[in-house]
C-alpha cells in the first residue's frame, strides 16, 4: 500500500509527539524506584484507568478480534472470555481494594503481607519474579508479531514484517525505558484519545457504506445472533468456504462447550487476582484502595464501545467487499490480515493516517505497559534485596533500564520464532496463565495455605505450562487448563499440608489489613474478637451479586457497538437497556459503598 503524503505526515507527527512527550516527562521518573514504577502514587484514578484501557487496546489483540468477528459474528462477543476480559469485573468489585491495601510496589513484595518473611516467603517471591519475567517476554513477543504483520501492509518501503517491528520497537522502548510509569501513563492517555477518534470514525464509515441487506447476503444464517446452542451451526459453504476450515482448526464446532470451559477457567483465574504485569502495577500505583477499584471499573466502561465500533466496522466492510476475493483465493488466507486489508481498501486519506497512528498507539501502549511492569520484580525483589541493598536510588533506576532492554531483546527473539498471533495468545492466556490460577486463588481464600504451598504450586504450574507445547502439541490450551489446574492445585495443597501453617501473627495482620472472605474461620474469629468493626468490610454475598451483574454489564458493552454497526436496532436497544439497568445496580450496590481505605 502506498500511503499518501498526508497520511505519512500524520504518522510521523504522532511518533515524534509521543517520543517527545515520553522523554519530556521522563525527568519525573528518575528520582527513585517509587517514582519510576508507580509514579509516586500521585496519578489520578481516571488517568490510570484510561492508561490501562489503552494498554489493553493492543494491535495484535485487535487483529484477532476482527478475525473472530468476521468468522463468528455476534457470537465472537463471548470469545474474549478466554483471556478472560471479565477479570476486570472481579478487580473492580473487590480484588483491587484487597491488593491496594498492601501499600507495596510489586506482587512479589505483596507476598510478605500474606506469608511473612521466612524462607518460604523468599521462595514465593522468587517464583513470582520468574513468572513476571516469563509472561513479560510472552507479551512482548505477542506485540512484536502483531505490529510486524500490520506495518508490512501499510508502509511503502519494501521491508520484512520483522524488520518493521524492530524499528517500531526501538522507538517505543526508548521512551518507556527512560520514562517509567510517568511516560507510560501520560503517553497512553494521549494514545487512547487518538485511538478512540479513529475507532469511532471507522464504525461510522461502515454504517454509511454497508446496509443490513448486504451483511445478510454476505453471511450465513445466525451470524448476527448473540445466543448459541451446543453446536455452533454456522455454515459458510458457498459464501467463503475457507471459513469452515478456520472454524474447524479453531476447534469451535462445539461452541457451547468452549464457552463453558472459558467461563470455568475465567472465574477461577479472575478469583486468583491479576498476574504480575501492567494491570497489577496500575492498581498498586493508585492513590487509595477506593481509587484502585474505580480505576478498574473505568477500564471496561471506556474501552469496549470504541474498540468494538472499529472491530465491527472493519469486519462488515471486509465481509461485503473483500468476501468474494477471499473466496476466490480459496484456502490459505490469513484471517489475521483482515484488519489491515480492510483499512487499506475502505478508510479515506487523512483518516487512514490517523487510524494507523492510533493502532501504532495501541501497540506502543501494550509494549510500554509490559516493559514497565516486569523489571520492577527483578530490581526490587532480587537486585535490591539480595545483591545491592545499599545502592543509591539512581542505581536502581539504571538497572531497571538494563533489565527492560534485555526483556525487549528476548521477547523479540521469541517473536521471530513463532508464526502467528494466535499461537502466542493461546499459549499466554490458555497455558501460562492456567498454571497461575490455583496457587493465587488459594492465597486469598484459604487460611491454611502457606508459603511453601504457594511456591510449589506456582512452580508446578509454570513448569507444566512451559512443557505443554512439547508434550501435548495438538491439544487446545483451553482444554489443557483443567490438567494444569489439577497439577498446580495438587502441589499447592500437598505442600501446604506437609509443612507448618504460617504464624498466627502473620495471618492475623494479613486478615486485618486485607479483610478477605473465604475459608478463614479460625483467623477470622481471632481478629474479629479484637476488632469487630472489620466485619462490615467482609461481604461475599454482595460481591458475588455485583460480579454477576458486572459480567452481564460488560457483555452488553461489547454487544452494543456490534449491533449498532450491523444496524440491528432491536438488539442495539436491548443491549443499551441492559447496560443502563446494570450500571444503575452497580452504582448503588458497588460504587456508592466503596470506602476510601
Provide the descriptors you would attach to this structure in a database record.
single chain; 597 residues; mainly alpha; Sodium/glucose cotransporter; globular
Written account of the structure:
The structure is a single chain. The chain has helices spanning 5-25, 33-38, 45-56, 59-72, 87-100, 107-115, 119-154, 161-209, 212-218, 241-250, 255-271, 278-285, 289-329, 338-346, 351-373, 375-387, 393-417, 421-432, 437-445, 451-471, 477-497, 504-514, 521-530, 540-565, 569-589. It is mostly helical. The protein has a single domain, classed as Sodium/glucose cotransporter (Up-down Bundle), CATH 1.20.1730. Helix 5 packs parallel to helix 11 (255-271), helix 7 packs antiparallel against helix 15 and helix 8 (161-209) crosses helix 13. The longest helix is centred in the first third of the chain and has 49 residues, at 161-209. It starts with a helix and ends in an 8-residue tail after the last helix. The mean pLDDT is 81.
- CATH class (first level) name: Mainly Alpha
Any idea what the shape is?
globular
Distance between the termini: 54 Å
Major β-sheet, in short?
Answer: none
Quickly describe the structure:
It comes from Bowmanella dokdonensis. The protein is an all-alpha fold and 597 residues long. It has 25 helices and no strands.
SSE diagram, text form:
Elements: H1 5-25, H2 33-38, H3 45-56, H4 59-72, H5 87-100, H6 107-115, H7 119-154, H8 161-209, H9 212-218, H10 241-250, H11 255-271, H12 278-285, H13 289-329, H14 338-346, H15 351-373, H16 375-387, H17 393-417, H18 421-432, H19 437-445, H20 451-471, H21 477-497, H22 504-514, H23 521-530, H24 540-565, H25 569-589
Helix pairs in contact: 1-8, 1-15, 3-8, 3-12, 3-13, 3-15, 4-7, 4-13, 5-11, 5-13, 5-24, 6-7, 7-8, 7-15, 7-16, 7-17, 7-18, 7-20, 8-13, 8-15, 8-17, 9-13, 11-19, 11-21, 12-13, 12-15, 13-14, 13-24, 16-17, 18-21, 19-20, 19-21, 20-21, 22-23, 24-25
